[in-house]
Amino acid sequence: MALSMRFNVKSVFRCVYKSNSHGRLFKAGKATGTTSLPKAQVFSGIQPTGVPHLGNYLGALESWVALQDKYSTVMYSIVDLHSITQPQDPQMLRENILDMAASLLACGIDPTRSILFQQSQVSEHAELSWILGCLTSMPRLRHLPQWKMKSKQKNEGSVGLYTYPVLQAADILLYKSTHVPVGEDQIQHLELAQDLARIFNNQYGEFFPEPRALLSDTRKVKSLRDPSSKMSKSDPQKLATVFLTDTPDDIVLKIRRAVTDFTSEVTYEPESRPGVSNLVSMHAAVSGQSVEEVVRLAEGMDTGQYKNVVAEAIVQKLQPIRLEIQRLRADRGYLESLLAKGAEKACSLAAPVMTEVRKLVGFY
Asked: Is residue 30 helix, strand or coil?
């Protein structure tokens, strides 16, 4: 089924800032009537690559939910412009966008406390990306790790893949974001956004704040089949990754087949016992306990018995999320409407910023 065109037609446009109600700014999903952005503003994005896995949830999404209570303005974007730097099936991309929207909502992203929107529906992202790209040198982009890794895998890369860190910077700066939740592997890309804010400010006058990183302290979730690698959606081994939509039976099977070692005692030693330590780390994260508490509770168990405990803890954590994703995914119209409203809110923030950027650059 194709994505409803009423959603696309209404939302894909340049946001024209006016002084009427459509042009008001939003704070935690509500209009404030002011023309200046809040001092603390959080932005982050996630690619629509299907339903998230346990590593995505514990490493990012859980902290995204908590940020809604800490900051006055929180924005989360489904960054579909970034996704097409790799070949995409259009129909699958449409479905993945809605799957991601449903997953974020099920995990606790609340559209009354944050702004959830689809990146491509706010054209200012692409416009600001072009302006910032004209301030970026090619050597600066060549040194970013993502380009080195992905272009090497494909032996060559597209212009979009090469310049997508500039689009990332535009995503952040477009809303004058002050804080960005990122993983350690994204720090260099955030540094590019900071550099571009300084370059723009030096050339055109003080305008963009330099965004700061919000690093999650959640341990990285490793592959269940290869604990030396991160858990990944693209892992060819089906038993390596726990998805948020996995059934309890799926989860039990994957945890039982998780790679450990020949020592039966449960300990947390990431260097020498990465497999068992990965299970301990996941157990601690989903149960809200410390690693020390989890290990103490596992005293007297062998790893086989402990796997059953870990599986049960993960099932209890993910079962409500799985059921909510199913419920939301069955209501396509609601998801489309919610993303359209989110795009309108994002537009009302982006429009005045781009109006000033155009004036500063000299477009009018």
From this structure: strand
Per-residue DSSP letter, 304: H
Separation of alpha carbons 259 and 48, rounded Å: 29
- Give the chain's mean pLDDT: 88
- Our answer to whether residue 70 is catalytic in this structure is no
Catalytic site residue from 10, 27, 30, 150: 150
- Pairing relationship of beta strands 212-215 and 179-182 according to DSSP bridges: parallel
SS3 195: helix
In the structure encoding, which two tokens stand for residue 67, read together? 């940020």
pTM of the full predicted structure?
0.87
Q: What SS3 state is found at 179?
A: strand
Largest alpha-carbon pair distance within the chain? 73
For the cut 60, the answer to whether the pLDDT of residue 110 exceeds it is yes
Query: Token pair of 183, please?
Result: 């993983």
What pLDDT sits at residue 40?
86
Q: Is the pLDDT of residue 217 over 70?
A: no
Q: Choose the catalytic residue: 10, 154, 220, 230.
A: 230
Residue type present at position 363: F
Is 230 considered catalytic here? yes
Q: How far apart, in whole angstroms, are the C-alpha atoms of residue 244 and residue 97?
A: 16
